[in-house]
Design brief:
homodimer, alpha+beta, 60s Ribosomal Protein L30, Chain: A, Phosphoribosyl-aminoimidazole Synthetase, Chain A, domain 2, 2 domains, seven-stranded mixed beta sheet, four-stranded mixed beta sheet, 10 helices, 13 strands, 31% helix
């Protein structure tokens, strides 16, 4: 058999898939033909996005564990569906890798992706495998949502309260540990996790859309300062956020000494650190009470308000006020 | 503005797109948010596929014109929809490229892709742009088809007649010209075209599915010997094809002298050359008469028959018969 075809068979054996053998609701033809065929019900809409995860840009093949590369590539792509309030359903995987990575590396990669697939409720329905000098992973994700319920970036109104889920800057901290080769010590394992295996807030996203609680939503993939700027631009509004309300990373006391040389600044990490995949959303004041029933409500933080004035202001704990520049992740920024 | 966002705006200005400004039938939310949202009608099914097109693997950034890279990356991805009999509709583009390619190279690339988009009837609905050391293009395509009409690889039956569209090996000839730096002479321009700007048989594919003429279909992307093997395996059948019926490339007399050093063998090129994106399909004898009404019927060739015996035999003009091994494109094959 063609070696590309063999790799596809191995992939389908490991990752939750919809093939002619393993039919899934809504899938007429799964992986294995020229294309997959889906039979929509007509009651829901399809949400679609694609995301590249590249060696040397998004991960380092010799520093990041392969199962994390598999897990994270699917998780971060799926985050775009969750950011619309959709229910994750299917994905396509275009995988390019050197022949030297088709052994143990690929096995571990596929196991990580399979774990993410089970956690997120995603099934593989198609893909493409190619030999190349560098690892390149491109994932297309499909979700479902009730008609008209998708949460976009453009519905925020002046007066709406701005929320984020979880803590911000945790993925940046994990990345700093990897780049400084501080990955071996057991006390760092919990700090590494958000960077290697990001948590995707599937239930929260769906709940916010289903219950029409949020006026706008997106995920924070490039950092709060960049992504809040995008949300405000799309909604033609501004924002005022308060530094003391930002959910910053807490450095555990048993690691503080070892981390001193990294000169970590939790506020800067929360403002500009990328890769957290937490949800950023706005809630009209009349809906705030109902928000208390949200899954994981205790992990939400109200960080500020949407304003009519189209600037993004950061209010310091000392009463200062500065315009917040977009300083999150931009792969094309000149260094 | 973030430079990634600027590139997305440039892309949307050049390529036929569905954005909030440019609404398209069936698109609730187009390019510009976390994900696109499609509203299916419930009467049709969606056909989906993805395809990577990588520098150094599928094209050479310094030998292939950028508008060909843009054209071909979309055309070859769309070919998988056409191979199911679907009507091409939308695509997502995940583009990674070095900053040095974001000027004239990108402009030309986008123009080529826009031309393919108009020709194929495809609109861009989303994507992802990243800086990387190598150009990596990943395209997800979506088409529509009436329920239950998708043509798979697995419906061929013994006795069915095997057809291919167009001529086979033309893309291989074009590639040989590029690799041997024979791209400048005017007399080679027509020979280069099928490699640089492959023709996709959109109307033929749709017609065959709509009229239930074909029992199985796929596109020839990796070469007839490999792809016919896949079709036969999926259908659990074999095939007997006749060398004299294969639509081979004809070398024009004004170029024959110059091409002698390439030692071209049209039969081998037709059997194993990849990248033609012609359609390979099987037709039950009772449907052969109706096939005459197919768009582009005069360019179809009956090359053999499906057999019960699960081998693929090639009958030579001299009466010889050999088992045809899959010797088409396999990026992982050891050289």
């Amino acid at each position: 058999m063609n070696r590309e075809d063999q790799l596809v068979e191995r992939t389908v054996r490991t990752i939750p898939s919809a093939s002619s053998q393993l039919r899934s609701r809504g899938v007429s033809i799964g992986i294995g033909d020229d294309a997959a065929v889906l039979a929509p019900t007509g009651r829901t809409e399809w949400v679609l996005s694609c995301d590249a995860f590249l060696e040397g840009v998004h991960f380092l093949a010799n520093s990041h564990p392969p199962d994390s590369v598999g897990y994270k590539s699917l998780a971060r792509a799926t985050s775009d569906l969750v950011a619309m309030g959709a229910k994750p359903r299917y994905f396509l995987l275009a995988l390019a890798l050197p022949a030297s990575r088709t052994g143990a590396w690929l096995d571990s990669f596929l196991r990580g992706m399979a774990r993410a697939g089970r956690f997120l409720g995603m099934r593989l329905i198609g893909g493409d495998t190619t030999n190349s000098s560098w690892i390149s992973i491109s994932i297309t994700v499909l979700g479902e949502i009730a008609r008209g319920r998708a949460l976009t970036r453009c519905g925020a109104k002046p007066g709406d309260i701005i929320y984020v889920s979880g803590k911000l800057g945790r993925a940046q901290l994990g990345l700093d540990l990897v780049l400084n080769r501080l990955t071996r010590s057991p006390e760092f394992q919990n700090l590494l996790r958000p960077h290697l295996y990001p948590k995707i807030r599937v239930k929260l996203g769906e709940w916010l859309a289903q219950n029409r609680i949020a006026s706008a939503m997106m995920d924070i993939s490039d950092g709060l300062s960049t992504d809040l700027g995008r949300l405000c631009k799309a909604s033609r509004v501004g924002a005022r956020i308060e530094a003391r309300n930002l959910p910053c990373v807490t450095i555990p006391s048993n690691t503080a000494q070892a981390l001193r040389k990294l000169k970590l600044d939790p506020l800067q990490m929360a403002l500009h650190g990328g890769d957290d995949y937490e949800l950023l959303f706005t809630v009209p004041p009349r809906c705030v009470k109902r928000l208390r029933r949200a899954p994981g409500f205790s992990e939400l933080s109200a960080i500020g308000r949407i304003t009519r004035d189209r600037k993004i202001l950061l209010l310091g704990s000392d009463g200062s006020s500065i315009t917040l520049a977009a300083r999150g992740w931009d792969s094309f920024r000149e260094k």
